[in-house]
Design goal:
heterodimer, A: 110 residues, mainly beta, 6-stranded mixed beta sheet, 5-stranded antiparallel beta sheet, 11 strands, 0% helix, B: 115 residues, 4-stranded antiparallel beta sheet
């Protein structure tokens, strides 16, 4: 069964303290891996798409990387406004449905 | 550039009632997907519409149905509401089905409470 697991469930950091979030997946024939940010009570906001192992993408303080079995979302020198739930989703082969993880709730303390 | 819009933002219904949620996709997008998100969970795929047809469906009962209009907007209908249907319902739009880029853009969601 295709699965997406995110860890940790929650992460509390001090402002400026860098860390990484993990998304591991078991799908056959990855078509794409997507990272989203979700603020409370709002819809997910698209961040990145990764298509193949070794690919990296950056946006401000965020950097996403992809291996054959997992993806990392690295956050460098985070600020309180980076506090949100970060969701990972994968698309398998010819299946257009996205399979989602449960998310990592990130809290950045000033 | 208008993003994805959904209406209403909040809704309270009683068990057994029926509800219709509406979505307008991002300008230029032709595909609409619907998701149910319970508190503390990732979104669960309900179904996807393209060219006014349901193209793919997740593991949801027939009480959940939908429609896509010629202008690409979409409706989600839920019949015989259960308490467990209480959730945030998200609409996402994207461009086409077979492109190399499959980024979905989400609306703000409709919070449905069933009492």
């Amino acid at each position: 069964e295709d699965q997406v697991t995110q860890s940790p469930e929650a992460l509390r950091l001090q402002e400026g303290e860098s860390s990484s979030l993990n998304c591991s997946y078991t799908v056959s024939g990855l078509r794409g891996l997507f990272w989203y940010r979700q603020d409370p009570g709002k819809g997910p906001e698209f961040l990145f798409t990764l298509y193949s192992a070794g690919e990296e993408k950056e946006k401000e303080r965020l950097k996403a990387t992809l291996t054959k079995k997992e993806s990392f979302l690295h956050i460098t020198a985070p600020k309180p406004e980076d506090s949100a739930t970060y969701l990972c989703a994968v698309q398998e082969g010819s299946n257009y449905q996205l399979i989602w993880g449960a998310g990592t709730k990130l809290i950045i303390k000033p | 550039d208008a993003g994805v819009t959904q209406s209403p933002t909040h809704l309270i219904k009683t068990r057994g009632q029926q509800v219709t949620l509406r979505c307008s996709p991002k300008s230029g997008h032709d595909t609409v997907s619907w998701y149910q998100q319970a508190l503390g969970q990732g979104p669960q795929f309900i179904f996807q519409y393209y060219e006014e047809e349901e193209r793919q469906r997740g593991n949801f009962p027939d009480r959940f149905s939908g429609h896509q209009f010629p202008n690409y907007s979409s409706e989600l209908n839920v019949n015989a509401l259960l308490l467990g249907d209480s959730a945030l319902y998200l609409c996402a739009s994207s461009l086409g089905l077979a492109g190399t880029s499959y980024e979905q853009y989400f609306g703000p969601g409709t919070r449905l409470t069933v009492t």
